[in-house]
Amino acid sequence: MTAIISRASVVGGHDGRAEIEVEVTYTNGGTTTISLDEEACTASLDRAGVTSIEQLVGAPWSVVLPALEQQGSTQ
After folding, report:
1. Burial (0-12, 13-18, 19+ Cβ within 10 Å), 1
2. Which of the two residues, 9 and 38, has the higher pLDDT score?
3. What is the distance between the alpha carbons of residues 59 and 39, in angstroms, rounded to a whole number?
4. Which of 16, 61, 63, 64 could cross-link to 24 by cystine, CB 3.0-4.6 Å?
5. Per-residue pLDDT at 73
6. By the 8 A CB rule, do 33 and 67 touch?
7. Cα angle value 59/61/64 (rounded, 5°)
8. pLDDT for 26-71, tens place per residue?
């Protein structure tokens, strides 16, 4: 079984712009939090057919992986 998104919310980023913060829960019970910038996240969520952040809860963490990869390539 893969890690799942257990929480997703819009938060203020360090530069004052909106970010999406997701909490990922692993099969062993461990968690981690990932912040994704708006531009990277919007594009990848559109490709995945996600229309609201509430739809992320319960989804495999791989849904946000393209956003994380895109964000990393622009920094």
Report:
1. exposed
2. 9
3. 20
4. 61
5. 65
6. no
7. 100
8. 999 999 999 888 777 787 788 788 888 899 999 999 888 888 787 7
Evaluate whether 34 touches 17 at the Cβ level (below 8 Å): no
Given a cut of 70, whether residue 72 has pLDDT beyond it is no
3-state secondary structure of 9: strand
- Tokens describing residue 8: 């997703």
* Tokens representing residue 43 in the block: 């594009």
Read off the pTM. Answer: 0.82
| Alpha-carbon span 39 to 63, nearest angstrom | 15
Quote the CA–CA distance of 28 and 10 in Å, as a whole number: 26
